[in-house]
Structures are given as structure tokens and as C-alpha cells.
From TrEMBL:
Assigned keywords, A-Z: Isomerase
Organism the protein comes from: Micromonospora mangrovi
Region of interest: Disordered: 226-249
Isomerase listed as a keyword: yes
Protein name: Maleylpyruvate isomerase family mycothiol-dependent enzyme
GO molecular function: isomerase activity
Mycothiol-dependent maleylpyruvate isomerase metal-binding domain sequence ranges: 9-97
Length: 249
């Protein structure tokens, strides 16, 4: 399946999920620190409404502090009732807007991670298609966009997904299900009590001890993206999930 088609389907699934939640469920804390389930739903609409203008505005107004800018936009969008948020998700499901010169992979990654952010605390199970998880695993481990500040947190670590057999890197072991690994490496503290391996303390320390980069460092990341060749294979309408995850070591 094309990555774009996965994105469209995930947005529609998200709309269906949020539309069926109770007021109590929408008020529950998500795995995103400080955000409720309702906040996560609102966040998913901000990119649909502002597109790439959101990225450039954040660079100009906050010195590329995307975390801060996301908080501002999400807080504003979260004032809407869930019915209007769901309607926006449905209307924008087929949006082709991407992070500048970064392709569709980070868009799908954002959708799947936030899906887990909501379903895990609510106890709503789902067998996520493996090809979609593979796209996210590949993106976060091999070529994360500036929106995913991975830095060197995976250096010297070997990741093993126990349910899919995917591996990445070399060094101290961190193992768990694909869902747990994705949540752990993307900064969700919930995952650290589920993952295992002698590399877990190092990953935990790197993630939880992460400091906010200074203005110069923040500005360099989008500058590198804007001056680098776009990943044509990941932007193309025919782009599909990678056949396999690279294995190192």
C-alpha cells in the first residue's frame, strides 16, 4: 500500500475513534505529557489547517521552537468541541501536506504515535498493520525529520522488536514489542517499564534527560532540511512501505 493511502486511512480511523469516545475518555491524560486525549485530537487538525505555513511561522515567531509552537496551536484548537475536531479530520483526511522536503513518512509517524498515545491509556487495543509500523520504525531509526529530535539517543544501542523480528543498530540491547520500542525511542516515558535489556537504562537516561536545544541548534535543523535534496521516493504518490527494516550489527 502507498504511504499516502496509509495516511488517509489513519486520519479516518482517528476520526472514527474520537467520535466514539465519551466525555470522560476525552478528558483522560494521553501518553503525551500534559495533553489530554482531546488535546491530541485537536493537535492532529493543526497541520491540516495551517499546512507548511505552520512550519515557517514557527521558525520566524519562535526561533524554530516547534514544541512551543505546537503547544500554542494545540491549545487554541482544543477549544473546539470534539464534533468540530472530528469534522476537520474527516475533511482533511486526503491532505498531501508534508513537512518541507521530508516526505510522507513523518506524517504517518505522527499519526501512528498519537494513535498509541490515545489508545494505550484508554485500553483500546488494535492490531496496527505491520507495514505501517515498519514505515515508522524505519523513519525514527534511520532518517528522522527535524520534528523528531532523536539526536544521538540511539547511538550504541541495538533495538529488537520481539513481535516482528526487526532490529536496528549495534551495542547494548533494548527489546520489546514494536509499539513499545516506537513509544520509547520517541520519548514516551510509559514505555520504559515495558522494555527490557541492558541498554534500557541508557535509553531512559537519554530520553528523560534530554535538554531543550538552544536557538542556534533549533534553527540549524530546518535549515539543513530546506537546503538538502528532497526524498523523492518518499514523496512520490506511488511511495510504498519499505520492504524491510535495515539490520546493523
Amino acid at each position: 500500500m502507498r504511504v499516502f493511502d496509509m495516511i488517509v486511512d489513519e486520519r479516518r480511523r482517528a476520526a472514527d475513534l474520537f467520535s466514539g469516545l465519551t466525555a470522560d475518555q476525552l478528558r483522560r491524560p494521553s501518553l503525551c505529557a500534559g495533553w489530554t486525549v482531546h488535546d491530541v485530537a485537536a493537535h492532529l487538525t493543526t497541520y491540516l489547517r495551517f499546512g507548511q505555513l505552520k512550519i515557517y511561522t514557527a521558525i520566524v515567531t519562535t526561533g524554530a521552537d516547534f514544541d512551543r509552537f505546537n503547544l500554542l496551536l494545540t491549545r487554541r484548537a482544543a477549544r473546539l468541541p470534539i464534533e468540530r475536531i472530528v469534522a476537520r479530520l474527516r475533511r482533511g483526511a486526503a491532505s498531501r501536506t508534508t513537512i518541507p522536503r521530508s516526505g510522507y513518512d513523518p506524517v504517518l509517524s505522527d499519526l501512528l504515535l498519537h494513535d498509541l498515545d490515545v489508545r494505550v491509556p484508554l485500553g483500546i487495543r488494535r492490531d496496527t498493520p505491520e507495514d505501517r509500523l515498519r514505515v515508522v520504525f524505519r523513519h525514527l531509526t534511520q532518517e528522522p525529520s527535524p520534528g523528531y529530535t532523536m539526536g544521538d539517543r540511539l547511538a550504541g544501542l541495538r533495538l529488537v522488536a520481539t513481535d516482528t523480528g526487526w532490529t536496528y543498530g549495534s551495542g547494548a540491547l533494548v527489546r520489546g514489542s514494536a509499539d513499545e520500542l516506537l513509544l520509547g525511542i520517541s520519548g514516551r516515558a510509559w514505555a520504559f517499564d515495558r522494555l527490557a535489556g541492558d541498554g534500557l537504562p541508557l535509553l531512559r537516561a537519554r530520553v528523560l534527560g534530554r535538554t531543550r536545544p538552544g536557538a542556534a541548534t533549533r534553527l540549524m535543523a530546518p535549515l539543513r532540511v530546506l537546503t538538502s535534496p528532497p526524498p523523492r521516493d518518499r514523496r512520490a504518490r506511488t511511495a510504498v512501505a519499505p520492504a524491510q527494516v535495515r539490520q546493523d550489527g
